[in-house]
Amino acid sequence: MPDREEWLAQFRCYLLDCAGRFPKAQRTFAKALEGWAETIETIADPQIEQFDLAEREVTEDRFDYAFRAAVAEGWSDHKAKTASEFLAILTRRLERRH
Asked: Could you tell me if residue 22 is left (phi over 0), alpha (psi between -120 and 50 degrees) or otherwise beta?
């Protein structure tokens, strides 16, 4: 397993970077990503391991698709209130096989 603090810091930076890429018309998605970045400590070690395993199995295009779908799902009805809840949605989407 990767170093927890390093992994959390990288994931937080990734969330914030992605938030900055959403156009103004989709600022609500960006706000959700920023909120999840602030709750990064809610992610447990087993969840990191599960995510890492799922992430290794997919292509970059598949990851991008799963990430966008997870953002939409997590944002809708405030389904994901924390980074842990968002990561669970993202991991499930990565594990789906089409």
From this structure: beta
- What's the pLDDT tens digit per position in 49-65? 999 999 998 999 999 99
d(CA 20, CA 71): 14
At residue 23, what are phi and psi to the nearest 5 degrees? -65, 165
Q: For residue 79, give the amino acid letter.
A: K
- For the chain, give every domain's residue range: 4-95
The pairs formed by 18-23 with CB atoms below 8 angstroms and a separation of 24 or more are 18/67, 18/71
Q: Summarize pLDDT for 72-95 with one digit per residue, the tens.
A: 999 988 899 999 999 999 999 999
